[in-house]
Please model this.
Amino acid sequence: MSELTLLLLRFGFLGILWVFVFVIVFALRSDLFGPKARRLPQPAAYSAPVAPAQAPVAGPPPARREPTSSLDAKRLVIVSGSKEGLEIDLPAEQLTIGRSNESGLVIRDDYTSTHHARLLLWNDGWVIQDLDSTNGTFLDDARVIVPTHVPLNTPVKIGTTSFELRR
Amino acid sequence: MPNSASRTLGTPVEAGVRSPLTTSIRLKLRVPARLRNLELALVLLAIAINIAAISLVQLGAIGHLEFTAIGLDALLGVLIVALHVTLRVVAPDADPLILPIITLLNGLGIAMIYRLDLADKSYGWGSAGIRQILWTAIAVGIAIAVVIVVRNHRVLQRYRFVAMFVGIVLLLLPMLPIVGSAKNGARLWVDIGPFSFQPGELAKVALAIFFAGYLVTARDSLSMVGRRILGMRFPRARDLGPILVVFASSMLVLVFQHDLGVALLYFGLFLVMLYVATGRGSWVVLGLSMLVVGGAIASQVLSYVNGRFATWLNPFDPKIYDEQGGSYQLVQGLFGFANGGLLGTGLGRGRPDITPLANSDYIIAALGEELGLIGIFAILGLYLLFVSRGFRIAFAGQDDFGRLLGVGLSFAIALQVFVVVGGVTRVIPLTGLTTPFLAAGGSSLVANWIIAALLLRLSDTVRNQPRLIVEAAPDVGAGMVVR
Model:
């Protein structure tokens, strides 16, 4: 084995070691930078709801409903946005919401933060907690600042998507 | 009650009644293979690099290939692929990057230990390299068992007091008269027949489980109340109990087992988990000041701690260099790094065997000599990726116990790497911890593979939740996955 071959093998080995490191970094790139933001196509038929942070919904506040405990809520139903009408079962304890792929409810639009908010089951019902998102989380058009109880059938708005908890 | 939302928005969903549309969408569409295929590709690449490392060692040190070691390394690769297949069945959503990273780290360790065997003319089944391969095989087998048996990490929360008991027994085992034994001044080993192992390594896993289980229940009293001093909320005196107990037991380890590293590891682990559970910086301030005071007292009272400080501060002093237990080893390690330089001498071409204990405590110095700074940074990068995956899994976790356990287990690895590499490179005083996955030693391998298996299990639970992806694109149906 000549010295030159050994030298080349030596450099080749260091090279492949770093190739491995970079392949792994490449594999988790979406983790590091968040998934690619998509342009919102704006066809005429589709009127995107107004971004909450830019123009908070004005007008008379909607009539307060009876505060119904959400303890027996079983489903989360999307009531407005592109996936209107879809529903998922609520998990046992917690549902994370955000643009990140690890979220329980992944909402990919221009107004959603990577880790936007989470729903937690406390002793007396479901609670929504805003995780310091850029554009805010709105419970019945009021911005959520501290963890707030989510009554049944009350819209929670994140970006262009609203959902409600149902039995 | 009239459903106001469905009335105003005109959605097809009525409260209580499921429309045919939504029931048809609630299919379980699973795409588990994608993560596992990525893992398989990376694991195969890692195994190829491991075999290349062993071959380069042989070419560099003895000039020709010798197939026993290569064959054993390849067999180990088969076992790791078996772990991968197990994951496909029992944890299809587990993190795909953990297994490749630890496969490569473990393989680099085996190659370097084997290389030191060649330098010492130590061949056959008794040599450290072959033993390391066998121990890795056992550790991978145990990891497979852990992934299969622990189907849900929350089961571990139930056994938190069992874990505490096991942890304490494992810590005390080396102190027992017949089985316990001391090597290189530290009383850390247990000898049973021809086997010796270091129970403190396994205690690390047990204590992480106990700390996580305990802090989930106790964190409210530890985080809510207290007095505000200088802008920080300090805990009440009666809540100081747990931290004092852990501190006292770390000090006992320091005094009776003569092991600075393990004491530091346990106390640091508890401190970080306490901080993560309560979110209060005052615990860190308290813990670090206890550590500084304890370290200052220990360096005055305990002669071996004092010696560690002296060799750290003045390793090149001829008196300290020449004395028994002096800085000879540390300085030889530094000379090794210097000899390696940026690109290293090449595997099998340096003299890492001059450093005492080059295959366990000083394996980083040996790798630094033969792979150079570039290689060392690749290895540290792998550790960084491993620990960041662990934190990521913990961060995305659903339950508090799982999150704390994930943080604790990955931080244990991070702290261990920092303490060892920092000690060898003279950033901090040298302590006797093993380099995770790299250093020779069965108990350390088993413990670290168990940690990896638990993180894999945690990551599977994290991803395996009901999820709905709402894409911004208005075309209904495309890009929508209900899992």
